[in-house]
């Protein structure tokens, strides 16, 4: 298991609440919390493959919606 180290820097200029919001957004984008949860809780290889497959399906679905290639057949 590779451990990825993240250096996240936020400049605080007066408004601490704004800096905290920026920090939370950067942590979310970097995936720090997701990686921490992955390390703390054991997942079997089958669960990892299933999660990876579901993530791939979701991203492809969202990409198809964004490109407009996905059409609804409802009337």
What does this structure look like?
- 0% of the residues are buried.
- The radius of gyration is 18 Å and the shape is flat.
- 63% of the residues lie in helices and 0% in strands.
- The chain is an all-alpha fold and 75 residues long.
- The model has no long low-confidence stretch (mean pLDDT 83).
- The chain is built from three helices and no strands.
- The longest helix has 23 residues.
- It folds into two domains: 30 residues; 32 residues, no CATH class.
List the main descriptive attributes of the protein structure presented here.
single chain, 75 residues, mainly alpha
**N-to-C SSE string, H for helix and E for strand:** HHH
Q: What fraction of residues sit in β-strands?
A: under 5%
Structural class: mainly alpha
Distance between the termini: 49 Å
* Proportion of helical residues: 55-70%
Radius of gyration: 18 Å
Low-confidence spans: pLDDT under 50, at least 5 residues?
A: none
State the total count of DSSP E strands: 0
Number of domains: 2
Instruction: Estimate the mean pLDDT confidence.
Output: 83
Number of helices: 3
Q: Could you describe the largest sheet, including whether it forms a barrel?
A: none
Principal-axis shape: flat
